[in-house]
């Protein structure tokens, strides 16, 4: 029992749907069979989220406020919470009243940004000190954290900075469909300029290492081209010739099984079909669009999301970091309708990665 990894979960933006998703995810008893979860956030928001879950879904969980991880009970039915006390109770509506507002999604604000940033840096600190075995992050608002004076483009950059990591990359995963990004939160014009041999090679290496960490002994890595039809031998661009192909050849010399560059209009259907274990993509949307196409499923008849799945993993860090693959959901905050599957998947992934390290 004591060998189950402790997973610290940051609550996400306090005015988004993170608190509600956290409550709904931790109502899944199987998570307690694979790990020992502890949340870092605000009691005011988590208590509110519990009231919503109770009213909308009949989920009956209680909050156990702690100041140190060693005070946690890790008992299903009770959510252990390190209370950062950043959001005053006056900011949260009394959802127990029938006429109270259904949502508190106020959107981007400095208060939410400062609170969310503190949750993230706290889970990083806990992991760096060895007090937890892995971390999972709910969604933050990049606008909010910048309004609060923390100038980062996302979780990945915060983790890299606070862990002193220079060699890192974002990986998205939906079951056995995985992509690793050469660049993420930059303009498309800048993303093209970032397709350089050394960075592409680094991402191939990180992709292969990640697969091995997940138990794939001989991973097959595919590399997407940047240009239509991989440039057609320089007709539509020369990045494949000048940067991507040399990186692939260098990776092969290191013993990595790597294929490419392959046309980006067909590489993902092949990966979903099991041809490759992981795909290195050249920029944010090249990887995010196919991932969300397979992971985000909308029910036309019910006019609601059937599934919002997929996780975000930062590779190259000295600690484990897995995240949901969706935003703060301002419009859904407070309704109890947000889908928790991505967070459940993220906790599962973090637990598996942590068990691999503890073994």
From TrEMBL:
Co-factor(s): a divalent metal cation
Gene3D superfamilies hit by this protein: Isopropylmalate Dehydrogenase
Keyword terms, alphabetized: Metal-binding, NAD, Oxidoreductase
An example Gene Ontology molecular-function term: oxidoreductase activity
InterPro entries noted in UniProt: PdxA_fam
Transmembrane intervals: none
Family to which this protein belongs: Belongs to the PdxA family. PdxA2 subfamily.
Assembly information from the UniProt record: Homodimer.
Name of the protein in its database record: 4-hydroxythreonine-4-phosphate dehydrogenase
Source organism of the structure: [Clostridium] aminophilum
Biological classification of the source: Bacteria, Bacillati, Bacillota, Clostridia, Lachnospirales
């Amino acid at each position: 029992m004591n060998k189950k990894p402790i997973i610290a979960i940051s609550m996400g933006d306090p005015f988004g749907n993170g608190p509600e998703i956290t409550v709904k995810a931790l109502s899944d008893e199987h998570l307690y069979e694979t790990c020992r979860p502890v949340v870092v956030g605000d009691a005011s928001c988590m208590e509110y989220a519990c009231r919503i879950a109770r009213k909308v879904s009949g989920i009956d969980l209680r909050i156990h406020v702690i100041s140190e991880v060693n005070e946690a009970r890790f008992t299903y039915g009770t959510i252990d919470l390190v209370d950062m006390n950043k959001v005053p109770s006056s900011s949260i509506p009394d959802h127990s009243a029938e006429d109270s507002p259904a949502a508190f999604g106020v959107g981007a604000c400095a208060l939410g940004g400062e609170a969310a940033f503190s949750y993230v840096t706290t889970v990083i600190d806990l992991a760096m000190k060895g007090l937890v075995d892995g971390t999972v992050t709910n969604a933050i608002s990049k606008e909010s954290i910048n309004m609060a004076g923390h100038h980062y483009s996302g979780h990945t950059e915060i983790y890299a900075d606070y862990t002193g990591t220079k060699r890192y990359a974002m990986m998205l995963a939906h079951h056995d469909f995985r992509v690793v990004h050469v660049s993420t939160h930059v303009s498309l014009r800048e993303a093209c300029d970032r397709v350089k041999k050394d960075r592409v090679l680094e991402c191939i290496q990180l992709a292969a290492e990640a697969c091995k960490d997940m138990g794939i002994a001989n991973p097959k890595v595919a590399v997407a081209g940047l240009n239509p039809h991989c440039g057609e031998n320089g007709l539509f661009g020369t990045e494949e010739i000048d940067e991507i192909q040399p990186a692939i050849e260098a990776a092969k010399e290191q013993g990595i099984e790597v294929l490419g560059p392959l046309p980006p209009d067909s590489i993902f259907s092949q990966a979903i079909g099991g041809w490759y274990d992981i795909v290195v993509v050249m920029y944010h949307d090249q990887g995010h669009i196919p991932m969300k196409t397979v992971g985000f499923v909308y029910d036309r008849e019910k006019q609601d999301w059937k599934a919002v799945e997929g996780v975000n993993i930062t590779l190259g860090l000295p600690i484990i970091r897995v995240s949901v693959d969706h935003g703060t959901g301002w419009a859904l905050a407070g309704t109890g309708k947000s889908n928790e599957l991505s967070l459940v998947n993220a906790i599962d992934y973090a637990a598996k990665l942590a068990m691999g390290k503890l073994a």
